[in-house]
Structure formats: structure tokens, C-alpha cells
């Protein structure tokens, strides 16, 4: 990228004239066209205004209500870009009794919705109310329970809704699965376990499935990824107290084996699902939403 700079002469307006016979004369030149409109000077300031890349000028990422006082220099620009994201939902949770031959399944919470405002007119405004949604709270259960929905975020009344909480269920059928909600920037995928081999299958990574087609990107910073769902998980209870080699955390009788869901980090992401055998299943929190302002 070219670093545009203003010319800084030591002798402003001085021009060199070379005649056809090769003789040289130096003159001072200035416009004498008596304009009715002076026009805009061609300089670095003009170039920067034409090709200016908007910069992040304010960020709100902790749940709460704020009144943003618009700086005078931003009022002079007159328009801004805004990126809004709702909070992520918390994961679902499920516990299965040690005597049961079956499994517990829980899906992660989904990410919050996003909303972008391009060239948003702030003419005549001095303050703008901003709301940052709170992430869905972690839940605990000795049975099964859905996660909490994330709070909505807004800028000047323009709302981006929070993501849905995850789900939990028990299953005793072969190859069961539980698909998470699709609300928000990304869905929480599928929780399942292999009934025949007593193994747990986690379809999504800790930060959600990167192949989700509806994951959200910040349009002002295209390399930044937002809207990942929490992980979904399944755990198997054998029900007879016999240890499973290499899988002792999944043994049912007396072990109280469990997988607590991790809480989300970053902006508007979903918390992971939590499962347990003979104990308390606890899911992860969703993370708060965000409002980013560019000018």
C-alpha cells in the first residue's frame, strides 16, 4: 500500500521553464482565474478522506446499558459503521443414573445473532444508548435441562438477538443423537455416543464447527470470526459397574463420571454442553454480546 504524503517545498510555487533553445528561466506561478468557487485542494487530506479505511473508535463488550457520548470529531464525520452481536446461550445439561444402561446427551448453546449498520447517520445526535446482552448462565441438573438464552444487544434501538440455550436428553437406543438449535450465528451441532462401543463422540470442537455455513464475520474486519457455538457431547453409562478399559470416566456404577461444559470466551459465543453419570451435570456459560463502532 502506498504511503501518501504531502509535498513539502522549500520554495513554494517556484517553477522551471526550459525554452526550445535550451535556455532556462525560473518563475513563481499562481492561479489568476478569479474563480467563483475555490474547490477542494488536491492533497493528502483529500486522498485520505476518499480512500479512508474506517477504524475502531469504541467497543462495548460487558453486559449492561451504556450511554455513548459521541465525540465532536465523529459528529463532524456524520456517519459511522456499527457491528452488533447478541450474547451466546449456555449449554444444555443431562445426568443419567448409574443403574441405567444408556447415555446422556447435551448440546452446546448457539451463538448470538449479528447485525451490521453501514454509514449510520448520527446527524443531530449527542448520545446513543447501547445495550450489551449477558451470556446465558450455566445450568446444573441431576436430570436434564435446557440452557439459558443469551441476552439481546442493541445500538440506538437496532437489536441483535441472543442465541438459544442448548438441550439435554437421555437415550437408551443404539446410536442415539441430539441435534442442537440453529438459532443465531452458528448452531451447536449434534451430540451422540456409540452405544455398541461405549465411546463418546464430540462432533464440534471447543469453539464450534468451523465448517458451519452460517458463522458470522465482522464486515469491518473480515479476518475476525464471530458466532461460534458451544461443543456438544455424549457420555455412556454401562449400568453394571464393570470398568471399560481406557474409558473409566464413562463407567457408571459408583464412579460419578462427568464432563462439565466449558464456558465460552470472546464475543457472543455459546457455552458447551455438560453431561454426568450419577452426579450433577453442569453446562458452560455463554459469553456476553458486543457492540463495535467504526468511523
Distinctive features:
2 helices, 24 strands, 295 residues, mainly beta, 4-stranded antiparallel beta sheet
Describe the structure.
This protein has one domain (83-294). Helix content is 5%, strand content 34%. The protein has helices spanning 44-51, 72-77; strands spanning 14-18, 24-28, 56-60, 64-69, 79-85, 93-96, 102-106, 114-121, 127-132, 140-141, 144-145, 153-155, 158-160, 168-171, 177-179, 190-194, 199-202, 216-217, 225-226, 233-237, 258-259, 274-277, 281-282, 290-294. A hairpin with a 7-residue loop joins β18 (216-217) and β19. The protein starts with 13 loop residues before the first strand and ends with a strand. Residues 194-215 and 240-257 have low confidence and may be disordered.
Structural class: mainly beta
Percent range of helical residues: under 10%
Helix-strand pattern: EEHEEHEEEEEEEEEEEEEEEEEEEE
Average of per-residue pLDDT values: 76
- Percentage of residues in DSSP E strands: 25-35%
What is the total tally of β strands? 24
Shape, please?
Answer: elongated
CA radius of gyration is 30 Å
| Count of distinct structural domains | 1
Strand order of the largest sheet: 3-24-5-8
Task: Quickly count the helices.
Answer: 2
Summary?
The chain has 295 residues and is mainly β. The chain has helices at residues 44-51, 72-77, and strands at residues 14-18, 24-28, 56-60, 64-69, 79-85, 93-96, 102-106, 114-121, 127-132, 140-141, 144-145, 153-155, 158-160, 168-171, 177-179, 190-194, 199-202, 216-217, 225-226, 233-237, 258-259, 274-277, 281-282, 290-294.
